[in-house]
Write a structure and sequence with these properties.
The chain has 218 residues and is α+β, with helices and mostly antiparallel strands. It is built from five helices and five strands, in the order E-E-E-E-E-H-H-H-H-H. It is flat and about 60 Å long.
Length: 218
């Protein structure tokens, strides 16, 4: 994607929909690159007058945008802040469950995209038939994600294991052909894939190139 939207919220809840939107801006002109490659630094600077400056910079091009948020408009009152703090405590268990659900979805999505990318870059280490099998399995898994946005943690984890069982035997052929590991590591897979059902023999390298993290799914 050639652009990314930066949204700034204040509040205590885990999901943005439960917090107060202060402002947003777009960082455009991002050059095309594989998933997880673009790096964007977001900086928050709050001065003594309560004025917040939020800037975003894309590292490869140096392109930068920012937004200035003053404390005289759209900010929460002390009463509203106290209310949101109390709500955060009251709904902590619910928020923790939602956070775990998002993490499980991200883990599955990262695995799919990393396997898909590895197969595309495998060259002659995988046959055309194996590459097609990987692509079909990944596409089916992505379609499952689109159709199951309300799935729970157990369902996401089960689907991850299901995809691994189908993809790992094929991808392990890359090791036999001298492949050192998946490009950029298996983003979102702590400790490599060795301990997962159907995982890669001996485990995968660390998380050198994780894909972008999505903090919530509304």
């Amino acid at each position: 994607q050639p652009a990314v939207t930066i949204q700034v919220y204040e509040g205590e809840r885990a999901m943005t929909k439960d917090n107060n939107l202060l402002g947003r801006f777009d960082l455009t002109g991002i050059p095309p690159a594989p998933r997880g490659v673009p790096k964007i630094d977001v900086t928050f600077d709050l001065d003594a007058n309560g004025i917040l400056n939020v800037s975003a910079k894309e590292n490869s091009t140096g392109r930068e945008r920012n937004i200035v948020i003053k404390n005289d408009k759209g900010r929460l009152s002390r009463e509203e802040i106290d209310r949101m703090v109390n709500e955060a405590e009251r709904y902590k268990e619910e928020d923790d469950k939602q956070r775990a659900k998002v993490a499980a979805r991200n883990q599955l999505e990262s695995y799919i995209f990393n396997v898909k990318q590895a197969a595309e870059e495998a060259g002659d280490k995988l046959s055309a038939t194996d590459k097609q099998s990987i692509q079909e399995e990944c596409q089916a898994a992505l379609q499952w994600l689109d159709n199951n946005t309300l799935a729970d943690v157990e369902e996401f984890n089960y689907k991850l294991q299901e995809v691994q069982k189908k993809c790992s035997p094929i991808m392990s052929k890359m090791h036999g052909a001298g492949q050192g590991g998946m490009p950029g590591g298996m983003g979102g897979m702590p400790g490599g894939m060795g301990g997962m059902p159907g995982g890669f023999p001996g485990g995968m390298p660390g998380q050198g190139g994780q894909g972008p993290t999505v903090e919530e799914v509304d």
